[in-house]
Amino acid sequence: MQHAKHLRRLAAGTAMAVMGLSGSAVAQNSADGGFLLEEIIVTAQKRVQNLQDVPVAISVVTGDQLEQANINSAEQLFQRVPTITFRKGNTNKDSAISIRGVGTISFASGVEPSVSTVIDGVVYARAGQQTADFLDLERVEVLRGPQGSIFGKNASAGVVNITTRSPSSTPKGFAEASYYEGNEYRLKAGVSGPLSDKLSGLVTGFFSHFDGNGKNVFNGHDVNGYERYGARMKLVLDATENVTFTAIADYAKGNDNGYADSIGTVFPGAYQDQIFKPSLAPLTPGAKNKDIDNDLDPKTRDKNSGVSLQADIDLGTAAITSITAYRHWYNYQQRDGDFRSDAPLYVATGAAASDVRSHDRGDLSFDQFTQELRIASTGQNFIDYVAGVYYYTTKEVDFFNRTVTACTATTLAAVNGLLPCRAGASTFTTNEGNADFTTKLKNYAAFGQATVNFTDDFRAILGGRYTEDKVSFDFARRSTSTAAFPGVRPAFTATGTTKQDGISGNAGLQYDFADDIIGYATYTRGYKGPALNVFFNMIGTDTLPISEETSNAYEAGLKTRFPEAGLMLNLAAFKTVYDGYQANNLELVAGQVVTRLTNAGSVSTRGLEADFTWAASRDLEFNGGVSYTKARIDKFKCPTTNPTCADAINGKPLPFSAKWKGSVTADWRLPVDLPNGDLNLSNTVQFTSKQGFDINQNPNAVQSGYSTWDAVLAWTSDDDKYRLSLIAKNITDKQYVILRIPNGTAFMRQITPRDSERYFGASARVNF
């Protein structure tokens, strides 16, 4: 293979073989069908490296392993990577990823995530952009902790680095169909191969559908389901001996009827007992409730598309890479904000202040352009390096509407101290607020990292990044009322801008104690740019900039490999302290709960992580990992509306930060003598300790610890042409939620995922 082609294929990771969880190797099938350890080539630091030589804690999962485990999107990654948490919002727009307990959760358009998602070298500016189904992935790398030099943009807590498959060198194709209980089905197909002597291509498409795991009892419609489809095309042109171009285009559309806010708990109180609970009579609120009673169905519509062009130039001792990309995202959301179909029942004053009908609708149009240009050394040198420049610009245009209906009782007598609403005897008033706002972000950066190889066994790492961020907005809210009404403030207009530059970087030492045992210690200075709290209910104080978020991270690790024993074991210890932590705080606005972005103060995360792969025999392999994370709020900065909140928050856990998480997978080639193939049984047990969801430490916004067990029984033909699988998810039928949100003092909302119930499925795949 020509050197340029070899470099490109290594950079694409096509040679990568990885373990199922948090690992650095996988026990691949040997010539006789047994398991053996393989070395792994990765590009986590934008250079071709053996994963065991990279002084960073990295979790890696192959696309094949994700498919076989029925992990189809980012929200399920926690089942294989213990240190990651996916916060599912009511819509894709409000979803977020956390690593080691740290992530940015906000509805504001002027703030960026703390965990960077990178797909084929392109940074996705919003977490909601990558909620589509996984499609033909080569691997997923999770870089744990701040990445201050190489991945500076949105990487103050870590990076999810996704690589899709590249075109094959010979004509290939596949078709796959899967069906699961609940009328969930998935279809995938693709073709790949050379188009000429210098050009190769790949096209893959998918379609998926799920009715949903809940009902809207108001109209009998399904909720928490979806219908999605999309395609990706990749072309690779070896233009000359030393120049390669890679063009990628993708499109995905999703129609989701959720996730819906079901009601988990109704708190004691006269209003709740006399009004709220009776109005929920069609439902049985509780931890297992998945149903809703809404006169407006929840709905999300997503369109994601993008194109990118990568150029790789081989200079012999170095390689130049340029990645130019444009992406577009459209999102529409609607939900029932009062969570009932029959409100209002009573006058919206006094004890019944929240007894109104409230409907929310909104959409956004988001565009981004990115350009990265870098140079990296190749081979083994005294100084190995990567350096580059980066440009990024985004524009988000939002519209949001909240419509609220209340009543005024005119001739009715009080019932239980409350004035009822009744047609013909009450005056019903509908008010609405509408907001249009545009938010723009622009970023310039220059970065570099060098590894100095003092000897074959001892090296030093030094990197840095200069970042300049600019955030600007214009905002206009119109209201049919001159005074605030539930969930809506009066009319307001504003414009604003903030600009900040920052320095981040890393330094470390690495020593090879033996050929297969290395140790490292690193320091990383993390940086996340300034933000603006641009959202529907913003007021004058929200126009003030949110300062940058900085962090100091310390990590020490040991990476070991014992080929004779078929064992690989990696350990990491870490501590990170964040200052100016950008987070949401819950507040009441005219009787309804809203979230407000702020520099919440100082938080820290520390812990231990271990992962392993063990090929116990030629027919049995184990891989897994466990993490202990103590993510805490050290010093919380309270809002002016609640100046004493720190007393209840300081020293408490960060939201979405379980102390213990882990997973173990056992792959066993069954001792069954089949004439045309092998039978394999894979079992995965995942566990998570108790975690809270509310930064204000509401004791009801907690999910207790739980474990799940999944299994896959698969027959694969000897020529790998056919595969048939039987899949069992959550065999013990363990119910859990991925979000609980307190709604003032009235009730607790919750979101229950698909995998929180037992279900079975089957999958068939043919390769040609």
Brief write-up:
This protein has 768 residues and is mainly beta.
* End-to-end Cα distance: 24 Å
Biggest sheet features: 22 strands, antiparallel, barrel
What structural class is derived from the secondary structure elements? mainly beta
Stretches where pLDDT falls below 50 for ≥5 residues? 1-34
* Number of strand segments: 42
Walk me through the structure:
The protein is mainly beta. Strand 40 and strand 41 form a beta hairpin. The longest helix is centred in the N-terminal third of the chain and has 10 residues, at 3-12. The chain has a 22-stranded antiparallel beta barrel. A 5-stranded mixed β-sheet has the order 5-10-11-8-9. It is 4% helix and 55% strand. The protein is globular, with a radius of gyration of 27 Å. It is built from 4 helices and 42 strands.
Summarize the helices and strands and which ones pair or pack.
Blueprint: H1 3-12, E1 27-29, E2 35-37, E3 41-42, E4 49-50, E5 58-62, H2 63-68, E6 84-87, E7 96-99, E8 115-119, E9 122-124, E10 137-144, E11 158-164, E12 172-180, E13 184-194, E14 199-210, E15 214-216, E16 221-223, E17 226-238, E18 243-256, E19 262-266, H3 270-279, E20 299-314, E21 318-336, E22 357-377, E23 383-409, E24 426-453, E25 458-479, E26 492-514, E27 517-528, E28 549-562, E29 567-579, E30 582-589, E31 592-599, E32 601-617, E33 620-636, H4 646-649, E34 660-669, E35 677-688, E36 691-692, E37 702-703, E38 706-717, E39 722-729, E40 739-743, E41 747-751, E42 759-767
Parallel strand pairs: 8-11
Antiparallel strand pairs: 1-2, 3-4, 5-10, 6-7, 8-9, 10-11, 12-13, 12-42, 13-14, 14-17, 15-16, 17-18, 18-20, 19-41, 20-21, 21-22, 22-23, 23-24, 24-25, 25-26, 26-27, 27-28, 28-29, 29-32, 30-31, 32-33, 33-34, 34-35, 35-38, 36-37, 38-39, 39-42, 40-41
